[in-house]
């Protein structure tokens, strides 16, 4: 009897593992809402409880275990491998990351603002491509995320190029010129709270942080989506805007980046 019970328990465990590891992730690959609920709520909370750690901490551990200190490319690869094969995370990701890389290389910016650091993945992607003496300011509201990001950026050897600032974007944007000696930004990467894209864009306009030719690059404009931002940026005569179709990070769900050039 005990052998039968043991066999049933093992079968249930195997089924649950298969559901968690393969069946459900495959099923949600093409559905944005389900993918976000599964990866960003259910799995994250479950693993936080089981491991008594946070997803950013686990991501940092993967970087420290698998990436070469001082090598930004290996840091990016370690995070991509972790997110594709171990645990999804809300980075811009490898597919959209290539679009981000191409925009940074095209602009060759001297002054960059990133809104939303999270664990520092996109910060590393951007900073590694910047010319000498360029400045990247990245804002993160969550102090726990910021603490992890600082370690990821340092592991990549890019701490001299990056200034990570903790706090709300709405508080810091008006103080950029005074606090950091910024005249205008050549590139702004928006990847923070989606409901802040539009008000922060208008705030940057009001504060004179955009010059003719400044580029706004916005992530997740389709999933989760930023309809008010897209309506504004695409209808405004002050911008020339283009959509780069891609996929939500590490899934098959449609998402993309909106590149908008400020015309003054």
TrEMBL record:
<dbReference type="GO" id="GO:0016206">
    <property type="term" value="F:catechol O-methyltransferase activity"/>
</dbReference>
<keyword id="KW-0949">S-adenosyl-L-methionine</keyword>
<keyword id="KW-0460">Magnesium</keyword>
<protein>
    <recommendedName>
        <fullName>Catechol O-methyltransferase</fullName>
        <ecNumber>2.1.1.6</ecNumber>
    </recommendedName>
</protein>
<dbReference type="GO" id="GO:0042417">
    <property type="term" value="P:dopamine metabolic process"/>
</dbReference>
<keyword id="KW-0128">Catecholamine metabolism</keyword>
<keyword id="KW-0479">Metal-binding</keyword>
<keyword id="KW-0808">Transferase</keyword>
<feature type="binding site">
    <location>
        <position position="194"/>
    </location>
    <ligand>
        <name>substrate</name>
    </ligand>
</feature>
<dbReference type="Pfam" id="PF01596">
    <property type="entry name" value="Methyltransf_3"/>
</dbReference>
<feature type="binding site">
    <location>
        <position position="191"/>
    </location>
    <ligand>
        <name>S-adenosyl-L-methionine</name>
    </ligand>
</feature>
<feature type="binding site">
    <location>
        <position position="140"/>
    </location>
    <ligand>
        <name>S-adenosyl-L-methionine</name>
    </ligand>
</feature>
<dbReference type="GO" id="GO:0042424">
    <property type="term" value="P:catecholamine catabolic process"/>
</dbReference>
<dbReference type="GO" id="GO:0032259">
    <property type="term" value="P:methylation"/>
</dbReference>
<dbReference type="InterPro" id="IPR029063">
    <property type="entry name" value="SAM-dependent_MTases_sf"/>
</dbReference>
<feature type="binding site">
    <location>
        <position position="92"/>
    </location>
    <ligand>
        <name>S-adenosyl-L-methionine</name>
    </ligand>
</feature>
<dbReference type="GO" id="GO:0032502">
    <property type="term" value="P:developmental process"/>
</dbReference>
<feature type="binding site">
    <location>
        <position position="191"/>
    </location>
    <ligand>
        <name>Mg(2+)</name>
    </ligand>
</feature>
<feature type="binding site">
    <location>
        <position position="220"/>
    </location>
    <ligand>
        <name>Mg(2+)</name>
    </ligand>
</feature>
<comment type="similarity">
    <text>Belongs to the class I-like SAM-binding methyltransferase superfamily. Cation-dependent O-methyltransferase family.</text>
</comment>
<keyword id="KW-0489">Methyltransferase</keyword>
<feature type="binding site">
    <location>
        <position position="220"/>
    </location>
    <ligand>
        <name>substrate</name>
    </ligand>
</feature>
<comment type="function">
    <text>Catalyzes the O-methylation, and thereby the inactivation, of catecholamine neurotransmitters and catechol hormones.</text>
</comment>
<keyword id="KW-0531">Neurotransmitter degradation</keyword>
<dbReference type="GO" id="GO:0000287">
    <property type="term" value="F:magnesium ion binding"/>
</dbReference>
<dbReference type="InterPro" id="IPR002935">
    <property type="entry name" value="SAM_O-MeTrfase"/>
</dbReference>
<feature type="binding site">
    <location>
        <position position="219"/>
    </location>
    <ligand>
        <name>Mg(2+)</name>
    </ligand>
</feature>
<feature type="binding site">
    <location>
        <position position="122"/>
    </location>
    <ligand>
        <name>S-adenosyl-L-methionine</name>
    </ligand>
</feature>
<feature type="binding site">
    <location>
        <position position="249"/>
    </location>
    <ligand>
        <name>substrate</name>
    </ligand>
</feature>
<dbReference type="InterPro" id="IPR017128">
    <property type="entry name" value="Catechol_O-MeTrfase_euk"/>
</dbReference>
């Amino acid at each position: 009897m005990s052998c039968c019970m043991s066999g049933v328990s093992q079968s249930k465990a195997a089924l649950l593992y298969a559901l968690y590891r393969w069946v459900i992730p495959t099923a949600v690959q093409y559905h944005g809402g389900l993918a976000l609920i599964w990866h960003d709520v259910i799995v994250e909370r479950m693993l936080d409880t089981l491991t008594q750690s946070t997803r950013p901490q686990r991501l940092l551990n993967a970087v420290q275990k698998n990436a070469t200190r001082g090598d930004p490319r290996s840091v990016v690869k370690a995070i991509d491998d972790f997110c594709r094969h171990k645990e999804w995370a809300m980075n811009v990701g490898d597919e959209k990351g290539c679009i981000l890389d191409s925009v940074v290389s095209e602009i060759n910016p001297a002054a960059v603002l990133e809104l939303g650091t999270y664990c520092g993945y996109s910060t590393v992607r951007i900073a590694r491509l910047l010319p000498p003496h360029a400045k990247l300011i990245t804002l993160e509201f969550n102090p726990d995320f910021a603490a992890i990001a600082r370690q990821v950026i340092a592991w990549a050897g890019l701490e001299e190029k990056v200034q990570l600032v903790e706090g709300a974007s709405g508080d810091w944007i008006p103080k950029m010129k005074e606090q950091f000696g910024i005249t205008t930004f050549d590139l702004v990467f928006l990847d923070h709270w989606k409901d802040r894209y539009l008000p922060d864009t208008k705030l940057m306009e009001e504060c004179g942080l955009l010059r003719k030719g400044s580029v706004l690059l916005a992530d997740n404009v389709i999933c989760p989506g930023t309809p008010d931002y897209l309506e504004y940026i695409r209808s405004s005569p002050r911008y020339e805007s283009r959509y780069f179709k891609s996929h939500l990070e590490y899934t098959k769900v449609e998402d993309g980046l909106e590149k908008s050039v400020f015309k003054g």
